[in-house]
Design goal:
This protein is α/β, with parallel strands linked by helices. It is built from seven helices and 26 strands. It has four domains: 161 residues, Molybdenum Cofactor Biosythetic Enzyme, Chain A (3-Layer(aba) Sandwich), CATH 3.40.980; 42 residues, no CATH class; 82 residues, Molybdopterin biosynthesis moea protein, domain 3 (Molybdopterin biosynthesis moeA protein, domain 3); 70 residues, Beta Barrel (Beta-clip). The protein binds adenosine monophosphate (AMP) and magnesium ion.
Amino acid sequence: MITVAELWTLLDSLASPLPCERVPLPLADGCILRETIFAPEDQPPFDRSAIDGYLVHTDQPAGLVTLVGTITPGSPAPAASPALGTALRILTGSALPASNTALIMQEDTALASSHQLQLLQPPTTRHIRRRASQARAGDILLSSGKLLNAGTLALLASIGATHPLVTRRARVAHLVTGGELVSPQTLPAQGQIRDSNSTLVAALLRDSNADLIWQQRVGDSRTSTAEAFAGALAASPDILLISGGASVGDHDHTAALLAAQGFTIHCDKVASRPGKPFIAASREGCIAFGLPGNPLSHFVCFHLFVKRILARLAGAEPVALVHAKLAPDSKLRPDERETWWPCVWADEGATRRVLPLPWRDSSDLTVLGETTGLLRVPATAQAGAEVEVLPCKCS
Ligand code: AMP
Ligand code: MG
């Protein structure tokens, strides 16, 4: 049986970054930038005031000055600084003349009359936001490969880069199999259960910046599964996920259907607990995964394998394992398969610790609300050893 680490290596060899496209900023959130972004002009492009107060000549000492006007943010800078003995009212963000400029904060002045002002301190240049103090025209602001998030999108907006070049988002189809499943809105009859994997996968894909382009639930008959399977492939997904039916039971059609559609099956089991029956397959332009139906197995397989492929397709690095110490009194049950144990961070001062959470079996969803990582428990786990954790963004 293939190990988790071996499967990672195999998956890395299957996936290369998807093509690039230009998208408007709101659609670029979570995407990987595929071009270098240069500053088109100095940042900031002109000297600006960082305060509400007054603009005077640099040689102006403290004392009485005459108010001769106002500069508001958004107006062009005056051609020159005010003459000695005079001041201009300025507000935060006001454009300033390029030379002989000093500022004084409103709090350091007192109005002597409607047009006269006492400067209680000598004015300074401290509160000027200098042109090019953040970047010069031509400087690199963002490198290719950067993840676009709120901060980087705002930076792009600030320089008018409204359609960045990014890796196209992965298109994912999700086929959910199981005659026992009913929709979450339905009251299950005796023996039925509600389908929770459709909701789980849709939410995990949203978190992973992938597009769920097709999702359907079918019973266990070979014919209906094959029909739905053809529908999923017709949607041209980059990734096809099939929930349930990954094992060798009478209702487990995934491997046979994949093979019939020309997929190469790379593995049908992985030495992971939970998550053992796990199919990885590929054909030109599509990677398929058969995931075990149990919800916790689903969660683990998604984070271990599907997220990794999504990262590779986006042209990003997969989430890295983090080293940590086990919280005292942690109760772990090692298994001959490597276990990926739901856990939560429990920081104690400078030491990063993880606390394994109690879970009954791979159908146990109750633990997922707390889970912030998957703790890798090797078959030969030893008490007190340093551990590795795969962080999960789910709280
Ligand atoms: P399977 O992998 O199809 O053998 O299913 C394994 C277990 O997971 C069975 O107990 C199923 O009832 C359960 N299961 C399968 N699919 C789902 C689903 N979509 N939502 C919740 N439980 C499921
Ligand atoms: Mg099933």
